[in-house]
Structures are given as C-alpha cells and as structure tokens.
Amino acid sequence: MDIKQLKFLIALDQTRHFGQAAVLCHITQPTLSMRLRNLEEELNLVLVKRGQRFEGFTEAGERILAWARTLLAAHDGLQAEAASCRGQVVGSLRLGTVPLSSFNPMHLLAPLREKYPELHFQLSSLSSEQIIDGLSRNQLDLGICYLDQVDASVFDVIELGTTTMGLLHDTRHFRFEASSLPWQALAGLPLGLLSKGMHYRQSLDLSLRTRGLDPNAVLESDSSFQLVQAISAGICCAVMPLDCGMEDLSEHLRIVPIEEASIHSPIGLLLRRSEPRSGIAEQCFTEARALFAQIPQA
Length: 298
Fold this sequence. Notes:
This protein has helices spanning 3-15, 18-24, 29-43, 59-85, 106-115, 128-136, 199-210, 224-232, 279-292, and strands spanning 48-50, 54-57, 91-97, 119-125, 142-146, 155-161, 164-170, 190-194, 216-221, 238-241, 253-262, 267-272. Strand 3, helix 5 and strand 4 form a beta-alpha-beta unit. The protein is 39% helix and 24% strand. The mean pLDDT is 88. The radius of gyration is 22 Å and the shape is globular. 32% of the residues are buried. By secondary structure, the protein is of the alpha/beta class.
C-alpha cells in the first residue's frame, strides 16, 4: 500500500467516475483501475462496486475511505509541519464557506495569499451543516458558517459579525431612489431566492412570514452565481447580504439596505480542536484571529 493508492481512492469518491478520477490524478484510467484492484487485493476486501461504470463504494469501501482521508490528512499535515519547521507555510488550505453572508471570504484569502505566496486554496460552497460535518470528518481545514448549530467545545471559533441584508438589483432593469427599503417594498417584486434548506433561505423566509409577506419567487437556485446572472438579465432582484462584495461584480449592480433586516445567528470562522489538524490550518487561524481583531464587528 502506498499514499498514491489512497489518493486514487479519494479522487474516485470526489468524481464518482473512473475516467474523471484518472484525469484528476494525471494517470490513465487502466492504471487507476489496476492500482485500486491492487489495494483491494492487499486488503482482501472489495471496496468499489463495478458495473458498466462506477456504481459506488461497498460498506467496507466507505469505512476504508474514511481511514484514507485521515491518513492523507496526516500525510499532508506532516509535509506542512516540516515546511513550518523550515519557516514556510506551503500546501493547500481546504476552506468551506456558506454561499451567502455579510462576510466576503476574500477578506481572509487575500491577506493570507499576500503573506504566504506558496499557499494554495481549495474553496467549497456548502451549508453550515455540511461545513460542520466536513470539519468533523477532516475533509475541511477551516469553515465559515452560521454559529447557531456549532458546539463551542468541539471547535475554536472566531466570530465575524452579523449578516445584514439588502435588495440587490441591476440598475438597467430596476431603480430604487430611497437610501433604504422597508420589507413591504418587496411585495410584488420578482425575487430570486436561494434554494430551500440553506440557512440563509430559512432566515429570509422567517423574516418574510413574520411580516405577512408572500414573496413572488420567480427563480430559485443553490448557486449565488446563478442568482447574480438572473439579476443581471433583469429576471429578478434578490435579497442578498450587505458587504459580501456581489455589487462589485458589475457597474450596473446596486444593493439597497433593507430596514431591520439581519440574520439572528452570527457568522464565524471554525477550526476543529481535535487532532489531526494541519499546521497550515492552525497558522491561518492564528493569522485570522489577528486580522479580524482589528475589524469592528457588526
């Protein structure tokens, strides 16, 4: 058994496709299949369900996959620790972040990139529940999520403030003269909404219901990028977080604050307390603590 076989196994889990996993690992598909069969023979277990195509992992495969992630994280942590001993911060930081909040993750990544030019980032857009689970399973190094479901005994937390909201629109299709809008101004407007089940959507629905408003939802998506595309096309407006940077994506985008519009649960940066956790994660969390200590909280 070698570390590459474990990387191949995890690549197959990520892509759910033999050919795509081979491309991800920069090898041929026959080589990938052969190395995975070698791993199965060595463990005397069937790990992968095979048919005409990839059909998933066996129960044993899922259990081995969990260990493979732990071993690879430890391997990456060892490499990062060795680099840290040499005074370097190199490797990849796996960061999960909720798609919508009043915190732009680039405010963290930009200063980290400037200070550590050899550091790379793997950024995933996930729900708060997925981020907590990913941190617990060692699939993520750091997470930015809402804190109402976070167990502070399990995670180190840096609170990043409260999410406030406004109406994002394209000035070529909609125009609002007021400096802020009451919730009632949204009545009848075509709105684009994040898919149900996301924390942000749940908080938005609650805000609308408590004010007796039934939104005219003309579009729903699990992608904030697609919402911005729909706004730019004039299909809808959307209730988006203030200070998330979306209005900077186009000269035609504007966001008008909505009065008394905020999400009760604050947003925060999380680091798992239990080992293994990489030196990269610890160093970046320390840098974030120093960075955001200088910024007034909302």
